[in-house]
Amino acid sequence: MKQKGDNKIDNNISTLQYYPIALDVKCKNCLVVGGGSVGARKALTLARCGAIVNVVSPIFSDEFTKHIIDKQKIINSQKITDSHNFISKPTTTENKNKIDSSNIVNNQHRLIKCIQKHYDSNDLNSIFLVIGATDNIGVNRQIANDARERQILCNIADFPEGSSFVLPSIVSRGDLVITVSTSGNSPAFAKKLRKELELQFGEEYAIFLTLMGNIRDWLLSKKNLQNDLRDKYSQVLPISQKMNSNIFRELVNSELLENIASGNYSEIDKTIKIILGKYLQPMDNISLPSYQDFISGE
Q1: 112 against 14, higher pLDDT
Q2: What residues pair up with 115 in beta bridges, in sequence order?
Q3: Is 154 helix (H, G, I), strand (E, B) or coil?
Q4: Which end of the chain has the lower number of beta carbons within 10 A, N or C?
């Protein structure tokens, strides 16, 4: 027998067109087809996530080249002055698919390799994920069909019907990643929402999450002290999952974010010491790190 409200739950589930997921592409071979600005953005996002990226296109636009060079400087703090260092060309006109690896400089550090050639289905060999970003409808459809036959994850720009997934708009603040998707119905509206969120969420969120992660690691390391302290205390307060939950609930509901945004370091230190000290008081041989210590990971 159905319970009251079951229909409402079923209706909500049926309207969800895509399954939201955060995908780990680190060290995965990914392909971007297209040498324009869209292809550059897709390649750079994949590289930021640790993917090994090949970009295939018969022509790489000036905008693509500039975008890749400028952004790669930021990603890797590495000066790149010659676009030919990362665009590989066939060594002969007779064999256009043969790649001169000597033209690929430090590719393993930059994670992006650009290959100047027309797309063909062999480009999908050993590929985990492919993104089609060309202005040629026929090529885009071929990519979609080839990927479907090989059961490879595929996204075609402006063609959600031929894609196995859609790409949301992204707001990134360090480890905080907020995505906005309209399920392919209105990329313009997703972009508008993204811009609004970028104003709402500042860089203090990145610092805050770094702080939370380092405090978490520090607490986990202190679990090893429990055995050492059993002889000193008749009862030792364990650093349990429940305690962790209580600590982080208080930290995230404190004014840490506001104080990070304003640079009020004395208040940040005070908040950390009060909250951690309350739960770790029985372990009086534990020295609580300062905010700067937590941020630096020391």
Answers
A1: 112
A2: 56, 88
A3: strand
A4: N
Is residue 64 a contact partner of residue 32, using CB atoms and an 8 Å limit?
A: no
Nearest to 282 by CA among 235, 241, 247: 235
Strands 112-116 and 87-88: parallel
| The dihedral formed by the CA atoms of 150, 155, 156 and 158, expressed in degrees to the nearest 10 | 150
Token digits of residue 183: 């399920």
Lookup: tokens for 161? 């019907």
Predicted pLDDT of residue 298: 65
β-strands 153-156, 129-132 pairing: parallel
Of 242, 266, 241, 244, the C-alpha closest to 256 is 266
DSSP conformation class of 101: G
SS3 285: coil
Tokens of 224: 């090893």
Q: What is the pTM of this model?
A: 0.72
Average pLDDT, the chain: 80
3-state secondary structure of 231: coil
* CB-based contacts of 34, cutoff 8 Å, min separation 6: 42, 55, 57, 131, 132, 133, 134, 135, 157
Least confident among 54-58, 129-133, 182-186, 187-191:
182-186
- Residue partners of 101: CB distance under 8 A and separation at least 6: 88
Element (H, E) at 65: helix 62-76
Q: How many CB atoms lie within 10 A of CB 36?
A: 18
Asked if 122 and 98 count as a contact pair (C-beta separation under 8 A), the reply is: no
Q: What is the largest CA-CA distance in the chain?
A: 82
Residue 123: both structure tokens together: 């480009």
